[in-house]
């Protein structure tokens, strides 16, 4: 690291608004107490924490509140980060910053994959935290004014994750997020054809220390995080030995603090072969694991270089995870080259057999810096048309693929089907979780007040006003008789979002791919 510059600067960090998506739970927010965003933006918070301590920093997550004219006027420079899906909002922030004469700096996964898509920014930070970050800081310390032409700085020497600071959680209202976020590792050893993670972050997992994770959990707890904390790692078990070393620390932290959190993560399905890891996850109160199942078709999995999903039969692997109290969430892709006329029906049959409550069903989208992008470019099958739901020229007719997606969304998320899958989880998965203590942390006045508020909102909005209230009460009555208030709150929150979002998607008011460039509504930029 370079020596810290003495010059004081004022940095405005702005995280762009997300367009509504299946996995960010917008429809659940009105049922919650003050929640207005899904998850704290981990990457930009780390950057904010890495700035010189003499610099002043303001942070605006536009999913909670927009940056104001006063914010822009105050700043010497504006830092922005985001993903491909946020590109319109990213550009809007740059435009507003320039209207105030401010220098703009863009980093994060989107610009790291496609720097050519952001010609309007003054500085592009390509890659992870490292020597490029030091250079941005040094340049702004010398002169915060806008450069004559765009400067592209690419990280050649990444900062070791063991040297990462605690994200600047103090700059955001953590209590207004649906779940908390934390990162243990970066990178994934697998090379699935459609995934850009190895290209962006490498195949050799890099790690924080257990001590860093414990310090971050202490900070999250002290600053008001409630309920769930999601490990944003690309693959939680990418380095199995390191995970085995981390998990006992999580178990002890939970015991010491009265189990204030339950954890969630993303992992490859072959985690089912690791009972020693699954048992420790159970003891640490992991409740959910996202697995990129992608398709139940073995031929398709082999074609996309995802053979590791076949190490254990998929339904058997899901059952194993359920037996450790882990509810599976799955990513699913339609529009694969191997799809057949009956792929939609096969998927619906798989959903019924697996009883996975939530599956993010997306049309295939080719992302830059992936083997899929390279292959389709060679084959002349990349479609550059922002009015389409996908940039892939499918083997099957486009209209047929889109129709299959809508049919699957409509049938998979019928209220009766959603509640039936959750009822299965309550019977077959949740009883395998450890029994949590009635600790002062879990039974705090704040938590009890929030629970009462959410229960009242659910009963009114779902049990009285919704058109699927009959299905809700069929699900809710047994829980009421048993006094299972926790599931009476948690399940309808998620189910309501799934049902309402899927209806919007089937009606064409939501994109068929989380990565689609098709604009459905004007971007709400900072004001």
TrEMBL record:
Q: Where is the Radical SAM core domain?
A: 174-407
InterPro entries this protein is in? Aldolase_TIM, BchE-like, Cobalamin-bd, DUF4070, Elp3/MiaA/NifB-like_rSAM, HpnP-like, Methyltransferase_Class_B, rSAM
Required co-factor?
[4Fe-4S] cluster
* Keyword annotations of the record: Iron, Iron-sulfur, Metal-binding, S-adenosyl-L-methionine
One Pfam family name is: DUF4070
Of the GO CC terms on this record, one is: cytosol
For this chain, one GO molecular function annotation is: 4 iron, 4 sulfur cluster binding
Name used for this protein in its record:
Radical SAM superfamily enzyme YgiQ, UPF0313 family
Task: Please name the source species.
Answer: Hyphomicrobium facile
